[in-house]
Write a structure and sequence with these properties.
By secondary structure, the chain is of the alpha+beta class. It has a single domain, classed as Orthogonal Bundle (Arc Repressor Mutant, subunit A). It is 56% helix and 15% strand. It contains 4 helices and 3 strands. The protein has helices spanning 11-19, 26-36, 45-58, 81-107, and strands at residues 24-25, 61-67, 73-79. A 3-stranded antiparallel β-sheet has the order 1-3-2. Strand 2 (61-67) and strand 3 (73-79) form a beta hairpin. Helix 1 packs across helix 2 (26-36). The two termini are 29 Å apart. The mean pLDDT is 92.
Length: 108
């Protein structure tokens, strides 16, 4: 199956949703999104790490260093209470936008 680009404005929401299941390092976040999307979505490092930095600055995630599965040093990201609330807001806005797009497509 061909890989698709992440729709504009949805990466932060997908990262927050992935972290809602528990802490993960950057590579683990990218792998989970790829896996859950049926290998359709591929998160590139050049997009993921700036997104994680944005989420850290906004206080929606926090990070700490720890060992990875192969005993390398990795930065683990975890959702904060503010991030959980933001995820709810973003999911509602996304659903509203998808419903509006469906209406436009069905009216044509």
């Amino acid at each position: 199956m061909k890989r698709s680009e992440i729709p504009y404005g949805t990466l932060d929401m997908m990262v927050l949703k992935t972290l809602a299941a528990g802490p993960k390092h950057g590579y683990g976040i990218a792998q989970r999104i790829h896996q859950v999307s049926g290998s359709v979505l591929q998160v590139e490092e050049g997009s993921l790490y700036p997104a994680l930095q944005r989420l850290l600055v906004k206080g929606w995630v926090r990070a700490e260093w720890g060992p990875s599965e192969n005993n390398r040093r990795a930065r683990y990201y975890q959702l904060t209470a503010a991030g959980r609330k933001q995820l709810e807001i973003e999911e509602m806005e996304f659903e509203k936008a998808i419903a509006a797009i469906r209406q436009v497509l069905q009216s044509a």
